[in-house]
Amino acid sequence: MNQWPDAETTLPADGTAGALVGRVWRPGLGPSVVAVREDGLHDVTAAFPTVRDLCETPDPAARLRAARGERIAGLDEVLANTPVDAQDPRRPWLLAPVDLQAVKAAGVTFVVSMLERVIEERVRGDAAGAAEARERIRRLVGDDIASLRPGSDEAAALKEILVAQGAWSQYLEVGIGPDAEIFTKAPVLAAVGSGADAGVHAGSRWNNPEPEVVLAVSSTGAVVGATLGNDVNLRDVEGRSALLLPQAKDNNASAALGPFLRLFEPDFRIDDVRRATVTLTVEGADGYRLDAESSMAAISRDPLDLVGQLLGPHHQYPDGAVLYLGTMFAPVEDRDAPGQGFTHHDGDLVAIATPKLGTLVNRIRPSDACVPWTFGIADLMRALVARGAL
Hints:
- Keywords: Hydrolase, Metal-binding.
- The protein has two domains: 7-107 and 181-387, Alpha-Beta Complex (Fumarylacetoacetate hydrolase, domain 2), CATH 3.90.850; 111-176, no CATH class.
- Helices cover 25% and strands 27% of the residues.
- The chain is built from 13 helices and 18 strands.
- β10 and β11 form a beta hairpin.
């Protein structure tokens, strides 16, 4: 992965066999909903002005397959025109595959990442003390914590022991307690798509990608599809205080989604998400390379349990939501100085992949060097009215 991907490496392993929906920017028209088909991208905005509208139908996959639309370009053409350095503003480029849905995320849903959050808290965001804290925490909690069911009697008993030893943490609370951590990752329309730059705050000195599967959920709570996400995280900021989670998680271009939303149908269901293996590759301009692999089978809370905690009688989302399911990726090997662990360098190319969903690729830049987010909900409504889609 030394360059931006083409159609073959972006698409799922079965190509365009799935019901794939995406969004592109069309010069003169604005954001457009596209069906990804064998011969290219077809604009179906006339049938579905937003991806939200498609996801609210009783059978989104069938509706997408039946929708007719203008073929606007081949996928390779659009992918090649998406990176900002190579972008021709007269031609279409790829956007994140969601629009009006709330962008939410579940935290500490894997034991590995939960323990890393505890470590960040213990060292107050200072990477230099992480290795010693990591060993101390593991001695306290042991390896059996991976088999604990959150909210169970066994989890409650472990909590009592850790509290008595002065080792309890707010991250253990959401990791093995009854209530999941669900937070807002980004404002509506702020997510970036595959091929775009992803942002890391310039003031951060300890940060990492978080490769995740992301569910699309309708306003009724139905899970209608899935995509990939990078929940870019500032470990030093969150480690100073969990109350700084918004600053650690929500920065310009820090929510990446894509490449496309694959809608559920008989050949792709929630069980495919449960069985997914997600790979991560980070390649630096300095020749650095990191490869990692995560199994969704190791998640502590079932994806549908997380959706149930996201949306219900106490929380409504009339335009639906997308939910990052959390990551087990927590890099601990040193990249620079000994004892400093992993952190991003400007220009890192990050690829997140799984066979059923394809590959999400983003270049890491300082958040203030990424393309500013200037196109909001009012702009989208005006653009759709102008083209007669509303």
